[in-house]
Amino acid sequence: MVKLVCFVVVVFMAAAAAMAGADRELKVGYYEKTCKDVEKIVNSIVVNSIKANRGKGAGLVRLLFHDCFVRGCDASVLLEKSEMNMHPEKESQANIGIRGMDVIDAIKAALEARCPNTVSCADIIAYAARDASRYLSRGGVDFPVPGGRLDGVVSRSRDADAFLPDSAANLTGLVRNFRRKNFTVEELVILSGAHSIGVTHCTSFAGRLTAPDAQINPGYRNLLVSKCGGVSPTATNNHVVVNNVRDEDGAAVARAMPGFAARVRKARDYLDNSYYHNNLAMAVTFHADWALLTGKEARGHVVEYAKNATLWNVDFGDALVKLSKLAMPAGSKGEIRAKCSAVNSYHH
Question: What is the pTM of this model?
Answer without folding.
Answer: 0.92
